Amino acid sequence: MKQAGGWLWRLSLANLLFLYGPIALLILFSFNASRLSATWQGWTWQWYRALWVNQALLDATANSLWVAAVSTVLALFLGVGLAVGLDSLSGRRQRQIEQAMLLPLVIPEVMMGVSLLLFFVLLQIPLSLMTVMMGHALFNVPVVVIIVRARLKKLDPRLMEVAADLGATYWNTLRYVTIPLLRPAILGAGLMAFTISLDDFIVTYFTAGPGATTLPLKVYSMIKSGMSPEINALSALFVIVSMCLIGLSLLVQRR
Amino acid sequence: MNSSPPAGRAESSRPVASWWLLGPGLLWMGLLFVVPLSLVLVISFAERGTYGGIVWSFSLTNYLDLLHPLYARILGQSILLAAVTTVLCLIMGFPLAYYIARTTPRRQGILLLLVMIPFWTNFLVRTYAWMFILRTEGLLNTLLLKLGVIATPIELLYSNTAVVIGLVYGYLPFMVLPLYVALEQVDRTLVEAAWDLYATRWAILWRIIVPLARPGIMAGCLLVFIPSLGAFLTPDLLGGARSMMVGNLIQHEFLVARDWPLGAAISCLLMLFVMGMMRWLLHATTSHSRQEDAS
């Protein structure tokens, strides 16, 4: 099958080119000196410098980081509890909850956005950065549960049994045995959740009130009001930062 | 520390302790996922007030309104665009998934990472990259003009074609990963045996690999179809006035037209569709594996 291997490789390469080409071009052209045309007119840092002095953008970045940090901590707290707690349920219950956890990840995000909007408005909770954080912690809990559970299933159950046999209480086993063993997964899940929160547009779009502008909302409004090389620079930064965070998360989980 | 507690203590404190662990998470998901979605369902039977508020009543008006040709067209178009996206992803993703499944473990790891990374990077920015390429003064037109392929720029952006390109771009990894998992499990010796028996390449593909990888193919198709069907950003940024999809319609009813009950009814329809497909997939894949266990 040597021959087949050759064109399979070429098709795969074409796929990867399709996945990375547009991002690469965007990053390249964020250094283009020309303001309007898509022809190359030399290197410049100008657009990046313009971002640095844009106060609205810096505020949006601060909002985004704040939302991502709080929602990640919340999602880790709730998600690790769920992942560990699920172990002591019967197999059938466990599977039911695990399957239900997938639901927030597969339903169209617009639905999650409008349902949260409806919920907050009917309960008369004013839309703000706090409602955005709640929304982000909602879609990040399943992410944490899935990553931590995958690790938990690989752990040797005898380690926990030994701790119990040696007289450790449930809480002590958890604190001194299970959680330390889960640390790479928890760290990886946290980085993943942080990135997803940083990147999220749709849920944020529906749950953010006036003044609660995050970076993706800002990028969206910039795109809607017309193309500019500053958007290229901002997008390039965005892609690079989230790729680094995701790469880091996957690396940490391998440990 | 506690020297010798009764042996049963750790065991007996377990059920209570686990509810302390599970409780907050379950409560959170119930409050912010189950309750809001139930509210959407309830609201879908209410009526719109004169000034955009909600009049609590029970009526099927919203669902009957959805039969209007205008909405039916948008629903039909969404299904069509999502279906085209799914087929394209399958055609493009299959060779890549197959290659990854057959290559050396080291390459496997690198390639899987390469497939996964774009899917975790900002969707908005990735969609914007295509705007940058496809627009009238964009990269593609500039290139084609320079090469003399076209004399005047072609309108690529703001069309259904652009929407499909954006959707395929966004959801291709969703197809490749489950396909890879399924193809990886296909027994190589079966393929070799068929090869030895002079089966053609097509026969091997259609009669051995595809049937064995069926659960993965179905999972991949669904994982692409569902988010494509409910897409909002891609049609919003890359589509034209006539490329509206269900996700845009829901957003429009909620944020622009302020007809929340109608928006809720559309959401429920979409949800019903998604749940139905999920159930079908779970059923189809589990019954498939049961068959395998039995034989």
Task: Walk me through the topology.
The complex is a heterodimer of chains A (255) and B (295).
Chain A: H1 2-29, H2 46-52, H3 55-85, H4 91-106, H5 109-122, H6 129-154, H7 157-165, H8 170-199, H9 202-207, H10 215-224, H11 229-254
Chain B: H1 8-43, E1 47-48, E2 54-55, H2 61-65, H3 69-102, H4 105-120, H5 123-134, H6 139-147, H7 160-184, H8 188-196, H9 201-212, H10 214-229, H11 233-238, H12 246-256, H13 260-294
Antiparallel strand pairs in B: 1-2
Helix pairs in contact in B: 1-13, 3-7, 3-10, 4-7, 5-7, 7-10, 8-9, 10-13, 12-13
What this model shows, in words?
Chain A is an all-alpha fold and 255 residues long. Chain A has eleven helices and no strands. Chain A has helices at residues 2-29, 46-52, 55-85, 91-106, 109-122, 129-154, 157-165, 170-199, 202-207, 215-224, 229-254. In chain A, helix 3 packs across helix 6, helix 4 packs across helix 6 and helix 7 packs antiparallel against helix 8. Chain A is globular. Chain B has one domain (63-294): MetI-like fold (Orthogonal Bundle). In chain B, strand 1 (47-48) and strand 2 form a beta hairpin. The longest helix of chain B has 36 residues, at 8-43. Chain B contains 13 helices and two strands; from the N terminus they run αββαααααααααααα. Classes of the chains: A mainly alpha (255), B mainly alpha (295). Chains A and B meet through helix 1, helix 3, helix 4, helix 5 and helix 6 of A and helix 1, helix 3, helix 4, helix 5 and helix 6 of B.
